[in-house]
Amino acid sequence: MARIIGIFSGKGGVGKTTTVANLGSSLAHDFGKKVATIDANTSGSSLGIHLGMHFNPVNLNNVLKGEITEWDALSEHGSGMWVLPASIKLKDYFVDHSKLPDVISRISKRFDIVLVDTAPTVGSETAWTFNAVREGIIVTNPDLPSVIDSLKMAKRVSDHSIKVLGVVVNRSKKKQSMTNSDIEKLMGLPIISEVPEDKSIEKGIKFNVPSVHLYPHSKASIAFKRLAGDIVGEEFETPGFLQMFRRRIGL
Prior knowledge:
With 251 residues, this protein is of the alpha/beta class.
C-alpha cells in the first residue's frame, strides 16, 4: 500500500503545484519509486499545465463522472511518475467529489507513493481529499499572510487525523519578512525544506518541464531532490563541480 501524501496550502500562488510536480518527478527519477500524482484541485487545476498534460482527452473529471476508470486517465510522465490531471474547463468542475477517496485508494494499491495536489481552499474537493490522504505537507511563502493562511489549513489537516510531515517554505530569500524561526514558532511545525527563489522554476513552468529535469543542478532543484530523499529516508548526494562538469561535456 502506498504512502498517500496530500500537498496543502492556505492560498493559491505559493508553489504548491510546483512542489507536487518537482517532488513527484524526483521521487520517480532520482529514487526509483513508483509514483502517482493526482490533481484533486478540480476548481483550479494546474498540475497538467505544469507538465504539459492540460489538454489530455481524458482526466480526473471524467473518472469522477463515471465515464472512465482512473486507469484510463493515468498517463506516464517522462520522469517515470504517473499523472492523473484534472480538467481545466470550468464546466467540468461540477463532479461528484465524494468519489475521490475511492479513486485515490484504488490507485495507491499499485504505487509506492501517491502525491495529491489539493485545492487551496476548503471546498468540496478538499473536504473529500481529507478522507483520502494519510500524510500532509504544508507549502507556504515566507510572508505573514501566506503563513497565517497555511496555519489555518494545517489545523484543518490535523483535525482530520492526518500526519503533518512539516512545512515547505517556497520562494525563500536572504531578505524576507519572516525568518524560518518565526515561521516554525507561529505554525508549530518544523520546516522540512527551504526552496529558494529561482528563475529555473519559472522556466520549468514555461516549458512544461519540472525544474528538477530542466535545470537539475539549480538551487531549487537540489532543494526538491533533498526533500524527496528525506521523505523516503535516503540521502540525496549533491554532485560536485567536477561531476557536473563531466556531465555537461558528456563524460
